[in-house]
Amino acid sequence: MFQVIMRLFLIVACSISGYFIIQYNYPSLSIIGLISGLIIALLVIQIEQAIRKLSLRVIFGGVIGTIVGLLIAILFAYGLRFIPAMEKQDIVPLEIVYFVLTISLGYLGLVLGSKKSEEFQLPGSSQSKGSLRGVSDHKILDTSVIIDGRIMDVCDTGFVEGSLVVPRFVLDELQLIADSSDSMKRSRGRRGLDILNKMQKSGSVQINIVDQDFPKLKGVDAKLVALAKKRNCKLVTNDFNLNKVAELQGVKILNVNELANALKPVVLPGEAITVKVIKEGKEPGQGVAYLEDGTMVVIDHADKSLGQTVQVVVTSVLQTTAGRMIFSNMKEVVVEQRRAGQNS
Fold first, then answer.
1. SS3 helix, strand, coil % of the chain, rounded to 5?
2. Cα 195 to Cα 135, 149, 170, 171, distances in angstroms
């Protein structure tokens, strides 16, 4: 609400100022001053919204780069005064030369400063060196883990330290998915963009958008692995294939699925649990149920108990990077087998 009030105040102030400034000099064109002030206010608001999406490092680099560019422009302009033809303005008027130098070098400094800002260390930052190179507490997010959304919950708990890096090509892929004609893909892409926006606003972890790309590589997965290797960062994903490819190339992987599996309650063979049989299994006589955390439970001799809540006994647990599967048998079947074994 405060931001809305401030923006409205800026629009009114700029419009009124433009109106009176033009009216004082050109009374007949006062309406143009009003419109010009309004346009300037809207432009400032757009710039402010764009700047808010940038990290402090990029903004700081852009400011320093602009200052350096302007200082170089002043030095060039001072040196041109010693050229006789320029002093007499026989070639080009000095005002035009100064203007071109100021705009060109100032813009060049802004672009280079913002692009190269990742290679410098801000005062008070946690980096031990002047760049992300050699820093192990930076983690690169891939597209799948952003869309998944659980990384935001993990960050909110405070267990994630360091900075999260989102490459520009990952943002482009999210945007492409969000613009897809397929409604399912479109909703997934928009969900990913919304999650990133919420993570930036929450402030629980720092989000760095990097523009580094690898044009010679095809596919986002290959670019992610190359970026992680170049910056010596960990890669956060829940993509099984990307997990394997990255590990083969020596990239440290943080798999959200593995984290979720590690936090699931431990179920031991011989333990009895209560579940609801949802559907038939692949093998004859099998039934399938799910725990509250989504773990699949395969139940032998449960084909006649579809839709019922039953007690089962865990026989084995299969743990993989894709998830955890529990194999079990109906409790009454296990009891009968035990009795038969004792009688024999």
1. 55, 15, 25
2. 25, 6, 14, 12
Express each pLDDT in 149-173 by its tens digit: 888 888 888 888 778 999 999 999 9
**Single-letter residue type at 151:** I
| Dist CA 164 CA 137 (whole Å) | 9
Tokens of 319: 């743990």
Amino acid, res. 121: Q
- Sorted by sequence, the CB contacts under 8 Å of residue 116 that are 6+ apart come out as 61, 65
Helix or strand (DSSP H, E) at 240 = helix 240-248
CA dist list (Å): 24 to 19, 28, 331: 9, 10, 92
Q: What is the pLDDT of residues 232-278, one digit of tens each?
A: 888 998 888 888 888 888 888 888 888 877 777 778 888 888 999 99
**How far, in Å, CA of 103 to CA of 108, rounded?**
8
Q: Could you tell me the domains of the chain?
A: 2-119 (no CATH), 138-262 (3.40.50.1010), 266-343 (2.40.50.140)
What DSSP designation does 219 have? S
For residues 223 and 235, give the distance between their C-alpha atoms in angstroms, rounded to a whole number.
12
Torsion 226-230-231-235 (CA) sign: positive
Of 263, 252, 241, 55, the residue nearest 140 (C-alpha): 252
Best CA proximity match to 242, nearest among 325, 322, 328? 322
Residues 287-302, mean pLDDT to the nearest whole number: 87
CA–CA separation, 189 and 335 (whole Å):
50
DSSP characters over 30-59: HHHHHHHHHHHHHHHHHHHHHHHTS-HHHH
| Residue 265 Rama label (left phi>0; alpha psi -120 to 50; beta) | beta
| Contact yes or no for 158/245 (Cβ under 8 A) | no
> What one-character DSSP code corresponds to residue 82?
T
Tell me what pLDDT residue 119 has. Answer: 57
Q: Which long-range contacts link 18-26 to residues 24+ away (Cβ below 8 Å)?
A: none
